[in-house]
Amino acid sequence: STGTLTLSLSITDVNEYDPAIVDGSFSIDENTPCCDIIGTIDASDGDYSYTDLDIPLLFTITAGNDDGIFSVDEETGEIWYVMDLDADVVGSPYSLVIEATDQGPDTIKTTSGTYTITVNGLDDNPPVCTE
């Protein structure tokens, strides 16, 4: 004898993968007006598309920004600076530790990467001659 059985399956997604950050570097010329975007963090998560608007990676600067010169957009990963940069004054290069956190359905996973930002000095101070 044969019969028919109807099954209902429920599949629950789990957070299997840690986010991944590709270490990187950017440079910017000194005296560039404040608040330009320097670059964007290269990151991914094997569980989700980085561009998935429902479950994005969230970014923070966790080290290397003691002077508060740089900021990162929490959702887009864009790094920008919040004050004028002068290579004769600032401590270039900067080594920023960036943390990426996923928003997994069960456990949240985090990883870190390093971005080096170099402020390029320009010949902006005229020579001074003394007798």
Helix content: under 10%
Placed side by side, the strands forming the largest sheet appear as 2-9-8-5
Overall spatial form:
rod-shaped
- Please tell me how large the radius of gyration is: 23 Å
Report on this model:
The protein is mainly beta and 131 residues long. The protein is built from no helices and nine strands. It has strands at residues 19-22, 24-29, 37-40, 42-45, 58-63, 70-72, 78-81, 94-101, 110-120. The strands form three sheets. It has a four-stranded mixed sheet, with no helix packed on it. A three-stranded antiparallel sheet has the order 3-7-6, with no helix packed on it. Strands 1-4 form a two-stranded antiparallel sheet. The mean pLDDT is 85.
SSE diagram, text form:
Layout: E1 19-22, E2 24-29, E3 37-40, E4 42-45, E5 58-63, E6 70-72, E7 78-81, E8 94-101, E9 110-120
Parallel strand pairs: 2-9
Antiparallel strand pairs: 1-4, 3-7, 5-8, 6-7, 8-9
